[in-house]
Amino acid sequence: MSVLTSDDHAEGAPVPPAHVDLGPAAALSCRECGERFPLGPIFACASCFGPLEIAYDFPTGDPEALRARIAAGPQSIWRYAPLLPVPADVADHPNLNPGCTPLVRADRLAAELGVTGGLYVKDDSANPTHSFKDRVVANAVEAARAFGFTTLSCSSTGNLAGAVGAAAARAGLRSCVFIPHDLEQGKVVMAAVYGGDLVAIEGTYDDVNRFCSELIGDPIGEGWGFVNVNLRPYYAEGSKTLAYEICEQLGWKLPDQLVIPIASGSQLTKIDKGLKELIQLGLVEDRPYRIFGAQAEGCSPVSRAYRDGHDVVRPVKPDTIAKSLAIGNPADGPYVLDIARRTGGAVEDVDDARIVDAIKLLARTEGIFAETAGGVTLGVTRKLLADGRLDPEATTVVLNTGDGLKTLDAVAGTTGPSATIRPNLDSFREAGLA
Amino acid sequence: MSVTVRIPTILRTYTGGSSEVTAEGATLQEVLADLDRNHQGIAGRVLDDEGKLRRFVNVYVNDDDVRFTEGLATKTPDGAGISIIPAVAGGA
């Protein structure tokens, strides 16, 4: 097997570095054909176009010692630095220090849904820019530093643009991010407020993504680190920290079932990778777990492929209120199918009305205001419980990946004051709320 | 039919570093065959052993993803711009 050098095809790298210190990251490996490449700002296999991912030299030895090392680490994803493509001193670098978000034991929600085995909501709206994207971006920033990039960029459905803008501001990098022109106001404002450049593109997310892929191969993109294009192998690893945290918060135990939203599918595949690593390192007991994927009906290419028994995903044109999941051509879709089938899970979708219902259910029962992606995940959870595919007696973790304040429009039309009254007691009594 | 093909960075070893080349053909299939005549081996990176588009390659004829049109049979009108792009980008 030939080994290509990173400078044969580094994407947009200013100067290919001679040595890269990204902790335990040893090389890039193609998920399709296994070809290995030196660490560099590349994301697709030069042989087969397959996605590249990080291959590690992990610490060996006593799992108890590693658990203790993690427990003594910072209250952020950097407690898991020995398992991430970041240098050992990463916590000393200026960054947003995401992670360690609450794993909420959702007993009232469980009672409503008839779950008796323990239901938890991993609430990633508690991250610095109120979505799980801070985890992945923090990893990408370290890769950007290592490769000498001076501009941080991305294609985004909204949450990522905010996370990149904030992380770049903290790290002292320029940012220039690209979004579809029709996003929710909350996400647009949040992406712009950090002072970087925000470019709205007349098209869907998939059009934005295509544009960014072309930009990176052009001299204009020289020196640009696109977190989810040429830094994608490093960036995506950040989602493993969701798996690590969930298991640590459960007392170093695997949950029986996880329900995870699908946009590109990367998050789901990396959570699975993280769980497998914990087993491999002896940090959790090796026992079966099942992974379920959740999509909105208006953008459900992976769910359809799952239902039809296909192992390829036919792209669709998205039309859903769950804009953060509106990726019609999901890069990791085939791997999501593999994981759902391998673990005995499933991929399912729900319509927009049920997404809104689920947002309100979570808010009403647990005081968690989820964005539409969280509504998708809980909506699918309900559906899978109703048809018996989720076991109500098993420990179940549902992901909320973003904050409802970013998608107010989804519920604004059906949520508001119970009454508008004059400022006196009679008026309050007349409203029937006393 | 003469068309312009944008070459992704990872395939530029086949085109002597050029990011854009011209090719002939009335369909995408013909264009790829012509591309391979002038840049031997490049089609094998875009197509699998069965001659189908690899699953992690996106090809656009003008602004249309060929998976939404007729795949390799998609017409390539004179002057069309074709982009070959790795599919493993975006999202999280």
UniProtKB/TrEMBL annotation, chain A:
* A molecular function (GO) term: threonine deaminase activity
Give the enzyme's EC designation.
4.2.3.1
This one is known as Threonine synthase
Q: Which family does it belong to?
A: Belongs to the threonine synthase family.
Q: Which domain of life is it from?
A: Bacteria
For whether the record's keyword set contains Metal-binding, the answer is no
Alphabetical list of Pfam families matching this protein: PALP
Which UniProt keywords are listed? Lyase, Pyridoxal phosphate
Provide a GO biological process annotation.
threonine biosynthetic process
TrEMBL record, chain B:
**PANTHER family xrefs:** SULFUR CARRIER PROTEIN CYSO, SULFUR CARRIER PROTEIN SLR0821-RELATED
Instruction: Show the Pfam families listed in the entry.
Output: ThiS (PF02597)
Q: Which SUPFAM superfamilies match?
A: MoaD/ThiS (SSF54285)
Q: Which chain regions cross the lipid bilayer? A: none
What the entry lists under Gene3D superfamilies is as follows:
3.10.20.30
What high-level taxonomic lineage is stated for the organism?
A: Bacteria, Bacillati, Actinomycetota, Actinomycetes, Kitasatosporales
Q: What organism is listed for this UniProt entry?
A: Streptomyces zhaozhouensis
Instruction: Supply the name of the protein.
Output: Molybdopterin synthase subunit MoaD
